[in-house]
Specification:
204 residues, mainly alpha, 0% strand, globular
């Protein structure tokens, strides 16, 4: 799968390099292509900084247009707020064809920002698990081709986290979903604990 992506970039397969290095190199190449498309030139800084700047480059002008510059602290919350502002008139067929095309392009840009946010900073630090290597390459392929491959077998561990109360009157239309933030934080903590308990695995 990684060789297919490298060939798509017009590279010879980088099979002599460690898997982690190959994935980082491909990720940087894909990011650079998007920087050229949206920001006219490759940007400086480490990859997490560049990803964050590209997301803001995409979302901030849209937030100024659609939500009066309001910004949720969470990127997915920002995406949710923009979609909630852009979609209703499209669904109600209150816009002409030119405006519909313009909004579809904005929604495509928002989708890209959401896709970029799915590559967490420091995801490969200190050393990625085999599952994280596979997950990252799968995301590369899906973002490039809109297709995914099924890889079997994969061993799974199921753990149930601590319950927390969900207020019955919570505002589901709010820009920031505190419940989802709690769920994400708990999942990240559990995954870190599980990772610490697993045997050291080969990643080359």
């Amino acid at each position: 799968m990684l060789e297919d992506i490298e060939r798509r970039l017009s590279w010879r397969p980088q099979s002599g390099k460690p898997m982690k290095d190959r994935i980082i190199k491909v990720g940087e190449a894909l990011l650079t292509l998007k920087e050229l498309e949206y920001q006219e030139k490759p940007q400086e800084g480490d990859i997490p900084e560049r990803v964050a700047r590209l997301i803001d480059h995409i979302l901030v002008p849209l937030e100024q247009e659609w939500v009066k510059g309001k910004r949720d602290a969470d990127i997915l919350g920002r995406v949710k707020a923009l979609r909630a502002a852009i979609l209703p008139d499209m669904v109600a067929e209150k816009v002409d064809e030119a405006e519909r095309r313009r909004r579809w392009q904005e929604l495509a840009d928002i989708y890209l920002a959401q896709a970029l946010a799915k590559y967490p900073p420091n995801y490969f630090m200190p050393e990625p698990t085999p599952e994280r290597l596979l997950e990252t390459v799968e995301r590369f392929e899906e973002d490039l081709t809109d297709q995914t491959r099924v890889h079997r077998p994969i061993h799974a561990v199921i753990e149930v986290g601590e319950a927390f109360e969900v207020p019955p009157g919570r505002d589901r239309g709010a820009e920031s979903d505190t419940i989802m933030t709690q769920v994400r934080q708990q999942l990240e903590t559990m995954l870190d604990a599980l990772r610490a308990r697993r045997p050291q695995a080969r990643t080359t």
